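tokens incoming
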């Protein structure tokens, strides 16, 4: 999808999936764009950097699924964007991959290689997480047994997807589904496919129906150039063999007018970019942070509290020196002593937005909060609440003035010292 044609909501950027078939998903004002790309045979890292990535700057995307990459093994390599791939162990054939924008990596839960023809990626989202599977089906040159093995692997992979996940399957299916399939496969195929359904197309429809999926890029009428997805090298044959499969449950969320081929994208491939739009909302996958303790260190300015803290720490440290322990055990013991003593003497620091909001002000606010619960009980309760409210405002004003005076004194001291 061309930049500027979507509107982010709630301060978050939209997220896009792609694979030259490109699918683009919206839910609750957020967008996920998914696409399928099938380059020619010799795609290497330098081509990804200098040809594919610049071309994709014309479109909004976050995750791109790619077919026929022809890399070996599975791993992650860092280009301009992060890139997960899956391939054959030794031979440079087949291979599917996901290209992930660096900013989108925080939404990635996992990227799982399945085979040289299948790879899945899982994203954190609302109301349910999203699992996208990039596929590269056997061409017409391969035997039917190999096609059945491909669909068997795909079925097994889908069986492992959490049931509540939103499933999107996209890629090069090497199958044709035409308008003639609509009468028998209504709900799975739309009225507006291209050409005539072939045997591989019927197998695709059987697969889609068994998983309650619909072919998103057959649901709306478009002119021929915006329907076909593949061009033969001789320029004489043009077919629609790349499809975006989405859950029938979310069929009403598909922006059918925006679900089409974008023939203007060019990376030297015989496949065109396909874009589909759904309503989805993605989440950042945040790493759990270890809790950090904040103690009220301001109390140490009081000489009496400072002396009490020093005495307790000293007494506990002296007991530790009598125990013969290794370094790690001693370090953990020292930490426990410091934390327990600070908790006992200083207490936790209460969170404040402004520096002049002191503990005394917060205590008065707590008292006012308790009085508020009973202020409508009697006239006396209302008077007590009003007095507490005045006390809070007075104390906060005094604390603010004192804070500003202290800052001015500190500035003067710094300026006088040069």
């Amino acid at each position: 999808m061309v930049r500027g044609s979507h509107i982010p909501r709630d301060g978050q950027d939209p997220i896009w999936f792609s694979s030259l078939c490109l699918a683009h998903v919206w839910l609750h004002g957020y967008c996920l764009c998914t696409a399928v790309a099938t380059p020619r045979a010799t795609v290497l890292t330098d081509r990804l950097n200098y040809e594919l990535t610049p071309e994709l700057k014309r479109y909004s995307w976050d995750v791109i699924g790619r077919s026929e990459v022809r890399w070996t093994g599975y791993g992650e390599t860092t280009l301009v964007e992060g890139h997960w791939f899956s391939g054959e162990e030794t031979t440079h054939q087949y291979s599917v991959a996901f290209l992930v924008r660096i900013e989108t990596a925080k939404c990635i839960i996992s990227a799982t290689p399945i085979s040289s023809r299948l790879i899945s990626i899982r994203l954190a989202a609302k109301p349910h997480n999203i699992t996208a599977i990039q596929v590269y089906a056997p061409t017409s040159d391969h035997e039917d047994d190999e096609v059945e093995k491909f669909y068997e692997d795909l079925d097994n992979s889908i069986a492992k997807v959490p049931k509540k996940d939103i499933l999107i399957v996209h890629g090069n299916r090497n199958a044709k589904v035409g308008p003639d399939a609509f009468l028998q496969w209504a709900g799975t195929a739309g009225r507006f496919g291209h050409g005539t359904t072939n045997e591989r197309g019927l197998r695709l429809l059987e697969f889609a129906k068994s998983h309650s999926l619909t072919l998103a890029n057959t649901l709306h009428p478009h002119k021929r150039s915006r329907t076909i997805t593949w061009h033969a090298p001789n320029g004489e044959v043009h077919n629609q063999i790349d499809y975006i499969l989405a859950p029938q449950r979310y069929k009403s969320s598909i922006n059918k007018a925006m679900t089409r081929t974008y023939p203007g994208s060019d990376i030297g491939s015989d496949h065109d970019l396909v874009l589909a739009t759904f309503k989805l909302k993605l989440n950042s996958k945040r790493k759990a942070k270890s809790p950090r303790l904040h103690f009220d260190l301001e109390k140490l300015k009081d000489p009496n509290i400072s002396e009490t803290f020093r005495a307790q720490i000293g007494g506990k440290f002296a007991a530790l020196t009598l125990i013969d322990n290794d370094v790690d055990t001693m370090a953990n013991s020292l930490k426990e002593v410091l934390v327990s003593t600070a908790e006992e003497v200083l207490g936790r620091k209460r969170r404040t937005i402004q520096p002049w909001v002191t503990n005394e002000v917060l205590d008065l606010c707590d008292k006012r909060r308790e009085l508020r619960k009973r202020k409508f009980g009697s006239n006396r309760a209302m008077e007590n609440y009003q007095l507490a409210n005045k006390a809070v405002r007075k104390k906060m004003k005094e604390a603010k003035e004192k804070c500003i005076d202290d800052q001015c004194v500190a500035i003067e001291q710094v300026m006088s010292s040069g």
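note: The CA atoms of residues 260 and 365 lie 60 Å apart.
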